[in-house]
Design a protein that fits this description.
Blueprint lengths: L1 E2 L6 H6 L19 H18 L4 H42 L2 E3 L7 H6 L15 E3 H6 L5 H29 L8 H8 L10 H16 L7 H16 L3 H4 L2 H20 L2 H12 L5 H21 L23 H31 L6 H16 L3 H4 L2 H9 L33 H24 L9 H25 L4 H4 L11 H17 L3 H11 L5 H18 L4 H9 L16 H4 L12 E2 L3 E2 H10 L4 E5 L7 E6 H14 L8 E3 L6 E2 L7 E2 L4 E2 L4 E3 L4 H11 L3 E6 L2 E7 H11 L11
Parallel strand pairs: 4-6, 8-10, 12-13
Antiparallel strand pairs: 1-9, 2-3, 5-8, 6-7, 7-11, 13-14
Keywords: Antiport, ATP-binding, CBS domain, Chloride, Endosome, Ion transport, Membrane, Nucleotide-binding, Repeat, Transmembrane, Transmembrane helix, Transport
Protein name: Chloride channel protein
InterPro entries: CBS_dom, CBS_dom_sf, Cl-channel_core, Cl_channel-4, ClC
Length: 760
């Protein structure tokens, strides 16, 4: 027997893996990253850069560039996300109006832009200008009458169908991952899951284009959720340009958290709300450094959008409102009622939508995504056109519902009976009796509300980009505006009632119906998503209604309480569970009294755990083990008899190491001994060169004892982002618990199907 180190040239062979080789440390598709390992690798990289920076000026400059790369990435994300959002807003505005008519002076102008440029537009007829023609005027030279209405109706449906068909075809052919909201998958990716291509360049391009098409088609969906996906695609693209982020999945997720904040910033014109949304709703790991960078990315994105000025009002949003009367304590009661409505709507929507999506996945319906989109678009367009509140874009509808009725408003909702003797300032119009227009608007809004509630259930989750924020806000805004008008008329006709007597004198401007619409919108959005803090901040940034934070808070908290009473899951968590993603929600509580030994594998009656020994297995043995099993890694023990734990080796890195060794070194054959120790084992003189793989061995895998409560194990997995955890007793290996095992156990304890967790 001779020491392998004495063999001629073998020192080289044993140590070649001490140098990095391609793809080591990367993960396969649909696998979970090891947060602890990524953190450790980044610390090592940072330590190396710091020590090298003292060697020369060039190394010092490189260390500065490395430190600033994070801020550069944030700047680039903000610029691109803001630009894309501005382009999407302008394109949606034009294509939505294209369904009804065209601008003769420049076909790329929307209705509003067309009338801005016209010198013949009067204030009274500001929505009508000679340069803008409806399709019936252009084609048959008729603007009124049954034939003109039918032609406009038909072309409205045809435009909607063509937009929707083009969108679903592009998604299906070029980027299947561009469908849906994207937020459930972003949450899962940020928790450490790998979905290759989900944030790719094709997904970014197709999602941007199809988002314009589907919103313009008039479907009951919004662009806000998909804009978060678009911003995260921008973040993924720019992080791939810097090795600091491209080679470390943990660091990449810090960039994606900030990108999500930039996405909400441009979606709502709410930079602070965006940062809070990322923190409260989507991020899994959010250190203080990421908070600052998210703030910077959201700021740059908002600034870029403001520079483009897509709405032409020098604001970041379409919904900016200014109310001229304060709210009163007695109004908290209707605000809380709107919160209850929001919670009930959220529960109804989640249950019905998940039931429909499950049916889509498990029946033949899922095989015809194009047909489904066409049918839903046709139904939406046919029912939406006759009602002026469903015909227009949902953003314009919300904007009108939020508006206060000033002297210059021409909306039906502001058709009150004026007192001819009124001589008051324009901004302080007293409460007045409702005219015929208001009553007409009320029943039209009631029909629109029922339609929106039903159609949104079937629209969200189709194979097209579809956001949920705007439809949810529209449902709440319609309900809120109706409640607001009801309270306003009650206060006008019964101002002597005790609840109105103290604060609503005759001739005073007491109730603002637009405020009720705003509160209702917040309540319904909160009921569906279960957001609270970020929701309130987004709503007051969205509307500029800083004075109305308390009503918004009351409605948001009430809607969350009511919705939580029926089920803790928001819509995004429900879709994560429906898709079987391995997402360990920090909000879930585990209170069952089980132990690690109850969950670990192998269980009784199962074959023993597949392990590697530190210095007695050949390359062929390891290759056979890899071929016969599909495990993501293998514990390494001293020997199969002692089962003393040494470390843990990842499957992917074993495959890459053996492949590289065979390609780059002579003498490595199938019966070469593989060893994970510092010193080589003693081998017979004629044996082939051994292969040293200590570099790929994790020498400090996370371990728990077999009597550790599962409550503690779940907490460890959640807070440390573990991929797997080894179970030992007195240093001897007993079994392994993976993230999937934890999720299946939690599902089992909650009387759910444990097999619904599909991925590793």
């Amino acid at each position: 027997m001779v020491n392998a180190g004495d063999m001629n040239g073998s020192g080289n062979l044993m140590d070649f893996l001490d140098e990095p080789f391609p793809d080591v440390g990367t993960y396969g598709d649909f696998h979970t990253i090891d947060w602890l390992r990524e953190k450790s690798r980044d610390t090592d990289r940072h330590r190396k850069i710091t020590s090298k920076s003292k060697e020369s000026i060039w190394e010092f400059i490189k260390s500065l560039l490395d430190a600033w790369s994070g801020w550069v990435v944030m700047l680039l994300i903000g610029l691109l996300a803001g630009t894309l959002a501005g382009v999407i807003d302008l394109a949606v505005d034009w294509m939505t109006d294209l369904k009804e008519g065209v601008c003769l002076s420049a076909f790329w102008y929307s209705h509003e832009q067309c009338c801005w440029t016209s010198n013949e537009t009067t204030f009274d007829d500001r929505d009508k200008c000679p340069l803008w023609q409806k399709w019936s005027e252009l084609l048959v030279n008729q603007s009124e009458g049954a034939s003109a209405y039918i032609l406009n109706y038909f072309l409205y449906i045809m435009w909607a169908l063509s937009f929707a068909f083009l969108a679903v075809s592009l998604v299906r052919v070029f980027a299947p991952y561009a469908c849906g909201s994207g937020i459930p998958e972003i949450k899962t990716i940020l928790s450490g899951f790998i979905i290759r291509g989900y944030l790719g360049k094709w997904t970014l391009l197709i999602k941007t284009v199809t988002l314009v098409l589907v919103v313009s088609s008039g479907l009951s969906l919004g662009k806000e959720g998909p804009l978060v996906h678009v911003a995260c695609c921008c973040g993924n693209f720019f992080s791939s340009l810097f090795s600091k982020y491209s080679k470390n999945e943990g660091k990449r997720r810090e960039v994606l958290s900030a990108a999500a904040a930039a996405g909400v910033s441009v979606a709502f014109g709410a930079p602070i709300g965006g940062v809070l949304f990322s923190l409260e709703e989507v991020s899994y790991y959010f250190p203080l450094k990421t908070l600052w960078r998210s703030f910077f990315a959201a700021l740059v994105a908002a600034f870029t959008l403001r520079s483009i000025n897509p709405f032409g009002n020098s604001r970041l949003v379409l919904f900016y409102v200014e109310y001229h009367t304060p709210w009163y304590m007695a109004e908290l009661f209707p605000f809380i009622l709107l919160g209850v409505f929001g919670g009930l709507w959220g529960t109804l929507f989640i249950r019905c939508n998940i039931a429909w999506c499950r049916r889509r996945k498990t029946t033949r319906l899922g095989k015809y995504p194009v047909l489904e989109v066409i049918v839903v678009t046709a139904i939406t367009a046919i029912i939406a056109y006759p009602n002026p509140y469903t015909r227009r874009s949902t953003s314009e509808l919300i904007s009108e519902l939020f508006n206060d009725c000033g002297a210059l408003e021409s909306s039906q909702l502001c058709d009150y009976i004026n007192d001819p003797n009124m001589t008051r300032p324009v901004d302080d119009i007293p409460d007045r009796p409702a005219g015929i227009g208001v009553y007409t608007a009320m029943w039209q809004l009631a029909l629109a509300l029922i339609f929106k509630i039903i159609i949104t259930i079937f629209t969200f989750g189709m194979k097209i980009p579809s956001g949920l924020f705007i439809p949810s806000m529209a449902v709440g805004a319609m309900a809120g505006r109706m409640v607001g008008i009801g309270v306003e008329q009650l206060a006008y006709h019964h101002h002597d009632w005790i609840i109105f007597r103290n604060w609503c004198r005759p001739g005073a401007d007491c109730v603002t119906p637009g405020l009720y619409a705003m509160v209702g919108a917040a309540a319904c959005l909160g009921g569906v998503t279960r957001m609270t803090v970020s929701l309130v901040v987004i709503m007051f940034e969205l509307t500029g209604g800083l004075e109305y934070i308390v009503p918004l808070m009351a409605a948001a908290v009430t809607s969350k309480w009511v919705a939580d009473a029926f089920g803790k899951e928001g819509i995004y968590e429900a879709h994560i569970h429906l898709n079987g993603y391995p997402f360990l929600d920090a909000k879930d509580e585990f209170t069952h009294r089980t132990l690690a030994t109850d969950v670990m594998r192998p269980r009784r009656g199962e074959p023993p755990l597949s392990v590697l020994t530190q210095d007695s297995m050949t390359v062929e043995d390891v290759e056979t083990l890899i071929k016969e099993t599909d495990y993501n890694g293998f514990p390494v023990v001293v020997s199969k008899d002692s089962e003393r734990l040494i470390g843990f080796a990842q499957r992917r890195e074993l495959i890459l190491a053996i492949k590289n060794a065979r390609q780059r070194q002579d003498g490595v054959v199938s019966n070469s001994i593989m060893y994970f120790t510092e010193d080589p084992p003693e081998l017979p003189a004629n044996s082939p060169h051994p292969l040293k793989l200590r570099r790929i061995l994790n020498l400090s895998p996370f371990t728990v004892t077999d009597h550790t409560p599962m409550e503690t194990v779940v907490d460890i997995f959640r807070k440390l982002g573990l991929r797997q955890c080894l179970v030992t007793r007195s240093g001897r290996l007993l079994g392994i618990i993976t993230k999937k095992d934890v999720l299946r156990h939690m599902a089992q304890m909650a009387n759910q199907d444990p097999e619904s967790i599909m991925f590793n």
